[in-house]
Amino acid sequence: MIQNFYPFFVLHTNQSTYAFRVMESGHLEHLYYGRRITVTEARDAEILTEKHVFAPSNTNVYDENYTSFSLEDVCLEMSSYGRGDIREPLVEVVHGDGSSTSDFRFEDAAVTQGKAEFKTLPGSYDETNQVQHLTVALKDRHYGLLLELHYYVYEDCDVITRSARLVNESGETVQLHRLLSAQLDFDTPEYVFTTFHGAWAREMKRTDVRMSAGRHVSASYTGTSSNRANPFVMLSKETTSEDFGDCYGCNLIYSGNHYEAVEVSGYGKTRFVTGVNPQSFCYLLAPGEDFEAPEAVMAYSHEGFNGMSQCMHHFVREHIVRGEWKRKARPVLLNSWEAAYFDIDEDKLLNLARAGKEAGIELFVMDDGWFGNRVDDTQSLGDWQVDTRKLPHGVEGLSRKIKEMGLDFGIWVEPEMVNVKSNLYEKHPEWVLQIPGKPHSEGRTQRILDLTRQDVQDYIITEMSRVFSCGEISYVKWDMNRTFTDYYSSGLKPDRQGEVAHRYVLGLYRCMKVLSERFPKILFEGCCAGGNRFDLGILCYFPQIWASDDTDALCRAEIQTGYSYGYPLSVVGAHVSACPNHQTRRMTPLKTRFHVACFGVCGYECNFCDMTEEELDEVKGQIAFYKEWRKLLQTGDFYRGRTFTGQTADGSCLMLSRGNVTEWTCVSRDRSCAVGLLLQKLVAPNTQYEYYRARGLAPERKYCFTYGYQPANEDGKAAECLAYGDALMYGGVKLKQAFSEGGRHGDMRIVGDFVSEIYLMVSE
Ligand code: GLA
Description:
Elements lengths: L1 E4 L2 E5 L3 E7 L5 E8 L6 H4 L45 E4 L10 E9 L18 E9 L4 E10 L4 E10 L5 E13 L4 E9 L2 E10 L2 E6 L13 E4 L10 E6 L5 E7 L5 E7 L6 E3 L4 E3 L3 E6 L2 H16 L13 E3 L1 H4 L5 H14 L3 E4 L27 H11 L3 E6 L3 E2 L4 H5 L19 E2 L5 H15 L6 E4 L21 H19 L4 E4 L9 H4 L4 E3 L6 H12 L7 E5 L13 H8 L3 E4 L8 H23 L1 E4 L20 E7 L5 E8 L10 E2 L9 E6 L12 E5 H7 L1 E2 L21 E8 L1
Parallel strand pairs: 21-22, 21-30, 22-23, 23-26, 26-27, 27-28, 28-29, 29-30
Antiparallel strand pairs: 1-2, 2-3, 3-4, 5-10, 6-7, 7-8, 8-9, 9-19, 9-20, 10-17, 10-18, 11-12, 11-14, 13-16, 14-15, 15-20, 16-17, 24-25, 31-32, 32-33, 33-38, 34-37, 35-36, 35-38
The chain binds alpha-D-galactopyranose.
């Protein structure tokens, strides 16, 4: 609900309230964002305004008419440089006269119903047209610029989205150096800024920084949203835990260079900003032109990190992911990559698919290596013609045979790239991002096609349309395997090179939009050397993303825990792979590899033809279990308990096992059933007692709790007990005493390094 009690604007979701007002000077003072409060008339909001009487010494007043404050010490909805505020601005423009002072003040506001679409970018959507939209127009009257701030209120998800649009209404071209999407000011310091950092194969490592003073930035300059720093971040208090306390989550619907910063001012006020990374960004806006900043998604919960994650998960499932696959069960797939790498041929693939079919697989995916002369990663990207030495009957023949087996067929492509060793590069060297006549940096011996150019976008759309129609293709893995260097497009004038990074993303979105609409039945999975472009922009077109090239169960548990703060299980691709693991050489039990992968869109990525009968039987059982429970695992509500990396939820864990356990629960939306996981890192000797605590159950309902889904008892039935939801959540299930040197009894828990167990809860 949006209340317009001019000069106050109050936005309510079910559990949160967001408020600001127009100051007498025309600036927007941010008043409140947090737990829902009641406002029935303008007077109710008065207490939220800061009582300014004078500007602090050594600060500057806005002008001689307004001497009671300095913009440096006011919580603002948006800010710019030049009239007193020296903190991170939302907008930075260099005008025709060379000045970089901007002065945006309130012009008018309007509340409308429904989600408006961007002209150039993907955004959230609302099928039910329930979402309310507040547009606030601000004007820089000295320079003739219009700035629109957009707010959308998704009440049931406790999400408010924000974006901004700048229109050049002056007679001169201006240089836009930044237009961020959202700015959030708090009147106190000491917020904890949580970011998710990493690199290839170790994405989404949670990092907490307590902000007392200065500035902390989490940003990407890889050209992608990146595995170095995901655009999803959180702000919380030191006392916030998984289940209690204030938590703000923020994500950006954008797949390129992004920027999130927290700054604490000299007056102890905290500012958070998010948007397109201003580094090397310079966009020319001619008279009449406009620029859209991507949509930022903000969620607030007073129920800790889990509470905020629930809001984000719900929002992503309902208002980001779209198309035929939005609500469809995702198939269990078998991918050829770790089974055969580039060394594929029709016989090998058919044998693998046959073994997969036998085990219960539903979709067979042919990964890299099927086109051009792709015997390794040094050549052929760009030449999307089938290698008939490997596939004598083409993709068409192979896919038909796979279909005849009763499996769906999927294919791997990397459309945005070209190897120098390729026919495409020979024909069109000008189609890559590189500085003419200058040496070029290399990554995986490939270069990035210049998607700022429409002819290159058209080529990708045509080529991929051909590939996606060259057989019975039900699934596409869209990969992108390098980061940007040498940002330069030969299609743009020198003064427009600062637009390359952003224009690339817009070009990519055009390709993804056209192709996903042209092939609505295909299930697209995004991939970028694993999770180098795991973001809400991609998810607007592709309903799932390969989360990491690291398939080691232990690493994956940490990585998937990281993603779970901002993303639901239904978008996280997770595979069971062979041991020793190809990224870490670690041996982990097959059971554990599956347990971790089933908390995601589960698939397999190993050579079924090499596996023993026992292993294949185990895999069969896993797939059967996943098919039975996947609706819950793919659409249920996911909660973190104790985790390897983060702080414990209840602070009560054993001294010896601190950070040694990952505990997850996924509950069906109607709370009637749940699946839990307990995964141990390393055995510590003589630590015999362990427990599992559920989350998210209905406290008053009675559940049948099953220890593991595979029979553990002699009578062939897994052990069970009955318990109320509250006892399972607040008390927890105490597990059997574990093996210890002194005790060798039949009825005990045998533990080892990397062991895990799954628990099932079904209400009566
Ligand atoms: C990337 C992907 C892998 C695989 C290879 C193929 O690394 O993340 O899953 O598809 O490319 O070259």
